[in-house]
Amino acid sequence: MKSLLIACSAIFLCALAAIGASPSFEQAVPGRVLVFPRDHGKHPSFQTEWWYFTGNLNSGDRSWGFQLTFFRRSLSSEPAREQSRWAARDVYPAHFALTDVKNGEFFHAELISREGPGLAAAAEDDLGVHVRDWSAERVGERIHVKARDRGYALQLVLEPLRPVVLHGRNGYSRKGAVDTQASYYYSFTRLRAAGSLTFKGISHEVSGYAWMDHEFGSSMLTPEQVGWDWFSLQLDDESDLMLFHLRQKDGSAEPTFGTLVRPDGHVVELAGRSISISTTETWTSPRSPAKYPSAWNVEIPSEGISLNVAASVADQELVTGGSTAITYWEGAVHIKGTRNGRTVRGRGYVELTGYAHSLKGRL
What we know:
Elements: H1 2-17, E1 48-59, E2 62-74, E3 90-100, E4 105-114, E5 120-122, E6 128-131, E7 134-139, E8 142-149, E9 152-160, E10 165-166, E11 172-174, E12 182-199, E13 202-219, E14 225-235, E15 240-248, E16 257-261, E17 267-269, E18 276-284, E19 291-300, E20 305-311, E21 317-319, E22 327-339, E23 342-352
Antiparallel strand pairs: 1-2, 1-13, 2-3, 3-4, 5-6, 6-7, 7-8, 8-9, 9-12, 10-12, 11-12, 12-13, 14-15, 14-23, 15-16, 16-17, 18-19, 19-20, 20-22, 21-22, 22-23
């Protein structure tokens, strides 16, 4: 199995080395109508796809964060030629992380596999993806997720409390100035979570809230862009907020865009509105050369939003040399501030890429 892991990782790195998408891969363009449950499944005509699960959980006086991500990367736009169950054109990396907020500890693990029986696969008609024994599957209206590595494990049932939220223009999410620099992107922004997690061999019954992203496309970054900052924030007034911006290699950030779900469920597209995200604290990794933001002020005047967001644990950096070869920060955050003059608190997740190294040519 170790030799398979090394081989798959090498193949994935070669795929990442090509700048931009092959012209024969399908590009994200306006006008596509996302249809569910079909679009919960995989999209083989697109080069890159991911199913992202993050959340904040409680067990007694303990607080936890979790991340479980499944990636699909096509090595060729052509179907596998061989008539064999082992013929494959896709590789599947996966990342799993747990944060023990009380003790300030962080664990992460990774897998990668080619497509094949007992290895990795994703359904095309609904959510059903697995890499070895890590999996996410929709059963009825609920989503079951599980992962295990040594003395660490996660097993949750996630129940959507809101319908699917389409980002951008009905799910078409433009990322930059180039027409094809886009993806199709939707989320379940508030999922009730219940189940168990194991940390250092000790099992805990947990409950809380989670967030699911599903995104697919073939060209997201230009050579001038190095990475992105992404926020998923759940407030105690039942507002949900997604914010995203790309960063240039000169250190500047492109205009922030995002989506707000108001307490009554109304969805507000924030592109073009005044959004300010300013860093107030930083953390320097002892493993990589990265200096990451670790606290922020978020201001959206049109929605009366003023938030202080801070990492629940400073060190939530993933070093994934055995799968995607991307070093990034993905972690639980806590929130306090005001919305329309009323005090709000909350929890969420933040992803920071391109600080340890550029993602140029990788996505």
